[in-house]
């Protein structure tokens, strides 16, 4: 009995008598675990943090999609509870429209410290807002929500055809006046006295522009012809740091080639960073009957470029944009 106790004590004290196989196994196991931790623990921690960061960068953008679907569900509930069959653009939807706008405005204030400047440049009547397209249209969502709260107006917007093929979005698109064209529909909207927004760069600009904020409009001038036909002013618009909130992997050539062949937004997004976002609305470009569509398109592009140069530090920097949450001064006031 005493011999057994002695052997157990020797194991506990770290001594390794050759007559005790259990003590040998215990010591070997202890040595192996310690050496493993000493050798690989650093790499395990770094690997775990890297994987977590990747998941966050790619999953956070999905929260925007989730909130959009949540808005759509709220509209469906409102429609069913009130047994609505009215035109989605009619005033009977104003109550739920304001509720959704308030939700997005609160989110914009909390996550991006969102600000809207130059609202006084929006005419009382119809007008065509032309803006630079970020990696996501989240800045436009913030803008139209704030506009609805401040001025009790909503702005129609032209979206790419693929948006209308997404499942479960239909009622949301209808209630907030999202259209896919054609030119006649755009002109008709403006002739009805409404505001209309267009990003001439579209999906291509969203996916393949970068932190240099290069405008990718090619030779598009259809939007200018819409303004001429409707006899309305064009109002340039730009959101500061919109490229720092969300980024794309548009620099990968194979993804650019795939998009050009399919016209599908196959480029992955990442980010969702809580950077400072400020939307600036420039002075209107008035309707001039003698101006051609080419001239008006060039003038509009120059106006948007001027807003970028005035309010955006180039190249864009995510850390700087984050720090701007704690500053009140813009690039140039």
TrEMBL record:
Signal peptide: none
Transmembrane stretches, start-end: 40-70
UniProt keyword Coiled coil, yes or no: no
Keyword terms, alphabetized: Membrane, Transmembrane, Transmembrane helix
Residue ranges constituting the Phospholipid/glycerol acyltransferase domain according to the UniProt record: 127-242
Any one cellular-component term (Gene Ontology): endoplasmic reticulum membrane
Keyword Transmembrane carried by entry: yes
InterPro entries hit by this protein: Plipid/glycerol_acylTrfase
GO molecular function: phospholipid:diacylglycerol acyltransferase activity
One BP annotation, GO: triglyceride biosynthetic process
SMART domains: PlsC
Protein name: Transmembrane protein 68
Gene encoding the protein: TMEM68
């Amino acid at each position: 009995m005493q011999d057994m106790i002695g052997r157990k004590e020797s194991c506990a004290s770290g001594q390794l008598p050759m007559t005790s196989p259990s003590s040998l196994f215990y010591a070997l196991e202890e040595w192996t675990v310690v050496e493993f931790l000493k050798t690989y623990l650093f790499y395990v921690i770094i690997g775990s943090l890297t994987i977590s960061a990747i998941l966050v960068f790619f999953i956070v953008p999905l929260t925007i999609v989730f909130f959009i679907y949540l808005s759509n569900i709220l509209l469906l509930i409102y429609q069913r509870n009130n047994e609505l069959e009215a035109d989605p653009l009619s005033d009977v939807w104003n109550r739920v429209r304001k509720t959704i706008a308030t939700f997005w405005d609160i989110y914009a204030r909390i996550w991006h410290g969102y600000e809207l400047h130059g609202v006084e440049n929006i005419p009382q009547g119809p007008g065509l807002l032309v803006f630079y397209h970020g990696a996501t249209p989240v800045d436009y969502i913030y803008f139209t929500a704030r506009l609805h709260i401040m001025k009790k107006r909503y702005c129609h917007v032209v979206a790419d055809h693929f948006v209308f093929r997404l499942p479960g979005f239909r009622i949301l698109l209808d209630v907030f006046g999202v259209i896919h064209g054609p030119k006649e529909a755009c002109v008709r909207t403006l002739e009805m006295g409404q505001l209309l927004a267009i990003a001439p760069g579209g999906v291509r600009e969203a996916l393949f522009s970068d932190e240099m904020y290069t405008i990718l409009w090619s030779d598009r001038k259809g939007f200018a012809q819409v303004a001429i036909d409707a006899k309305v002013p064009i109002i340039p618009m730009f959101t500061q740091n919109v490229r720092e909130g969300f980024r794309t992997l548009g620099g990968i050539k194979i993804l650019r080639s795939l998009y050009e062949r399919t016209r599908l937004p196959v480029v992955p997004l990442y980010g969702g960073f809580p950077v400072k976002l400020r939307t600036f609305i420039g002075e209107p470009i008035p309707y001039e009957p003698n101006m051609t569509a080419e001239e008006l398109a060039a003038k509009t592009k120059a106006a948007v470029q001027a807003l970028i140069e005035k309010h955006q530090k180039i190249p864009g920097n995510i850390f700087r944009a984050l720090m701007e949450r704690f500053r009140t001064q813009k690039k140039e006031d």
